[in-house]
Amino acid sequence: MRAHRCPHTLAALPPLALALLSLFPGHTLAEEATLAEISVRENQTAATRYQLPQTTESVTAAQIADSVNVVDTEDALKYLPSLFVRKRNYGDTQPVLATRTWGVNASARSLVYADGVLLSALVANNNSIGAPRWGLVAPEEIERIDVLYGPFSAAYAGNSLGAVVDISTRMPRQFEATVSQMEAWQDFNQYGTHDTYRSSQTAATLGNRDGDLSWWFSFNHQDSHSQPLSYVTATTQPAGTTGGYGELNKTGGVANVYGASGLLHTVMDNAKVKLAYDLDPAWRVAYTYGFWSNDGHAGVDSYLRTAAGAVTYGNQAGFGSGQYTLQQQHDMHSLSLKSDTGGTWDWEAVATRYSIDHDIQRTPNTVGTGTSLPTAGRITLLEGTGWNTQDLKGIWRSEGRSHELSFGYHRDHYQLVNATYTTNDWANGRNFTGRASEGNGKTETQALWLQDAWRLASDLKTTLGGRWEKWRAFDGYNYSSSGSGISTTQPTVEASHFSPKASLAWEASPDWLLTTSVGKAYRFPTAAELYQLVTSGAQSFIPNPNLKPENVLSTEISIERSLSNGKLRLSLFNEDVSDALIGQTTILNGANTTVTMNVDKVRTTGFELAAQQTDALFSGLDLSGSLTYAYSKIISNPGWQATSGTTSTGKFTPYVPDWRATLSATYRTSDKLSTTLSARYSGKMYSTMDNTDVHDNTYQGFSGFFVIDAKLRYQVDAHWVASVGIDNLNNYKYTLFHPFPQRTLVANLKYSY
Questions:
Q1: Measuring CA to CA, which residue among 360, 387, 411, 408 is closest to residue 119?
Q2: pLDDT at 135 (0 to 100)
Q3: Which end of the chain is more exposed for a tag (fewer CB within 10 A), N or C?
């Protein structure tokens, strides 16, 4: 029999988490009791605290340390079912999360939190500024990660239609300090670029608990070099040059490769301070400040040669746009007050602010003769972009706990400030010569939600809830100096919607749990979808300020079987989205233009199979794996046009692969040594509405992949731990628009006190 098992919780706490209790030998019984109370409070997740009904998968700090080469925080998600993080390089600023029903172009269709602080950048829904701010969580502070699938809880906005990632970080229970050094070497070989790209990371943490006050400080410094993130292509050989490689683009047209670009060198720093004070045994107030900075420089590698054998750019503008600099400084604040009485009432209040204080990208307009660059160029600013959120939550528990009623109020405010200026000295200063374009705007959402976890019988529980949201977009403005020019103040738009939720869980036996869930959700347009300028060559177009919110209906049937030291789960899911917001190339005013548009209806149906077991087959062997199939189709899209005359109705939804799979095996030969071998697979996907991108493994194409990772971890003594691993051990070469990393050796040495 399982003790105290909550039917809604679909992921059992792995036995390794219990080993944390053994980290504090030598304390008195009173001290151990106090530490146990702290542990209960800090290890409580949103899923357990608010009785959330979603399918949940989890990974603990101990599992992460043993099984995954974690350089950046997002690496910890590599082997969770159905997830993929589009991480192109170490220190990537654009690692967008893909889920089982949506692909890598859907940053606003998932939510990422750390201790209740929203890391998702819902100011956009794209692969650039829309990526979650993973860098504000240090890998060393992760306690566990829980992933909640689908929009079945009223506690979360409609952006949860893909998944909610809930990162729980820890606070120290006594004085502790760590320092670690990571080194990585990627061996890259494609077209005419053959090189080894080195990255390094130095990390340190310091923390303590003194009575009711606990504090934590972490610092990461990363210096990384990437493989080419893009290539310079053309249909014909540049005049007066030799060199290059014959190639096709994703639709089968000629796109010969004449050089690599976007060879990015970044230097990043991340500092974080967390303070927590226990007002009494039940109430805690906490404050967090995070600071992130990035200094990036991108270069190129030309394959072109003159008749005399000299390197040249051949007047190809791509060699200009592939060279740029980035200077960024962002900061984050959060303040929370929470109670944890476990009694009739509990409360929580969280306020956050994320500010893009300094964010500037500089690039030349084009190229000069030979390998020279003109001084004229463009400077793009995001300064002033940011968001703030406020959440008030409560829990009421009936006598006997037959009802656990949770409720709350949410408000968020997002601001996009995105301007590009011309300059006569692109590499230095802010000597603007004019304004080239601008896209500004704000969105705001207020929401009330209520949810009742009602135990109908000892083996039967239903969760009923609803979320009411009022959304508006305002202060929109667009300007462009190109073509005939644009200067437009966009209208204020508003929408209100109610989203009901329902879930029924039946514990058929101590080993079997069956859950069925249905959820309505609305995903409102982001400021970037509404207000970022739409351009095509020399033409500019006013973006559509009247985009409709996505209207989502999701259903899931989940069957879970408890195993000895593990579990097996099968989930069947279906998601219908009306007015889906998808950015695609269509005909606009007679020109081929990439624009965000409402697609009438998209449907995704599939299944997810996940399993994990400790001491599987024999003692010391842990196995986990998942298999996901998604059949995602565009049901109706009459508003889309293509120059080829093709249709998108009946085609596969862009960026959603048909198959995904993971498999991981960790063998602990002793308490000191563990060895892990893992594999990730993703199947075919398209990136165009009409699925005409049939040549996928090329620059700007989207190919499937099969990647094997390995890791060896050795606990030298009580203080020192060393690990060495290889990502992409089989050196699989694949492209998701950008070429992705090839075989990479990762070594890490850590000291803990």
A1: 387
A2: 85
A3: N
Q: Which residues contact 540 (CB under 8 A, 6 or more apart)?
A: 437, 480, 482, 483, 485, 486, 533, 534
Spatial neighbors of 751 by CB under 8 A, at least 6 apart, are 178, 179, 180, 719, 720
Element of type H or E holding 750: strand 744-752
pTM, two decimals, is 0.90
> Buried (b) or exposed (e) across 407-416, using 16+ Cβ within 10 A?
bbebebebbb
| CB 361 within 8 Å of CB 322 | no
Tokens of 595: 């624009």
The predicted structure's pLDDT at residue 223: 96
Buried b (16+ CB within 10 A) or exposed e, 539-553: bbbebbbebbbbbbb
Q: Is 19 left (phi over 0), alpha (psi -120 to 50) or beta?
A: alpha
Token digits of residue 86:
């589009």
Q: Going by C-beta distance under 8 Å and a sequence separation of 6 or more, which residues neighbour residue 145? A: 58, 59, 64, 76, 77, 80, 165, 166, 167, 168
The pLDDT assigned to 215 comes to 96
What pLDDT sits at residue 45?
77
pLDDT at residue 14, rounded to an integer: 34
Q: How long is the chain? A: 753
Type and span of the H or E element at 303:
none
Q: What is the pLDDT of residue 593?
A: 65
Residues of the chain with pLDDT under 50: 1-40
Token pair recorded at residue 715: 């606990």
Phi-psi map region of 749: left, alpha, beta (phi>0 left; psi -120 to 50 alpha): beta
| Per-residue model confidence (pLDDT) at position 592 | 59
**Exposure of 272 in the CB half-sphere (CA atoms within 13 A):** 27
440 closest CA partner among 487, 472, 480, 478: 478
Rounded Cα distance between 314 and 730, Å, is 36
**DSSP structural state of residue 669:** S
Residue with tokens 């976007």: 262
For 297, other C-beta atoms within 10 Å of its C-beta total: 15
Q: Residue 201: beta bridge partners? A: 182, 222
**What pLDDT is attached to residue 4?**
36
Question: Which pLDDT tens digit goes with each residue over 324-353?
Answer: 999 999 999 999 999 999 899 999 999 999
> Which residues are CB-neighbours of 620 under 8 A, at least 6 positions away?
667, 668, 669
**Residue 5 neighbours by CB under 8 Å, 6+ apart:** 507, 510
* CB within 8 Å of 397: residues ≥ 6 apart: 343, 344, 345, 403, 404, 405
Per-residue pLDDT at 538: 57
Cβ(276)–Cβ(209) below 8 Å: no
| 345-364 vs 324-339, strand pairing mode | antiparallel
By the 8 A CB rule, do 724 and 712 touch?
Answer: yes
CA distances 677 to 494, 682, 726, Å, are: 51, 18, 10
Residue 483 sits at the vertex; the CA angle it makes with 479 and 489, to the nearest 5 degrees, is 20
- Closest by CA to 377, choosing from 329, 414, 430, is 430
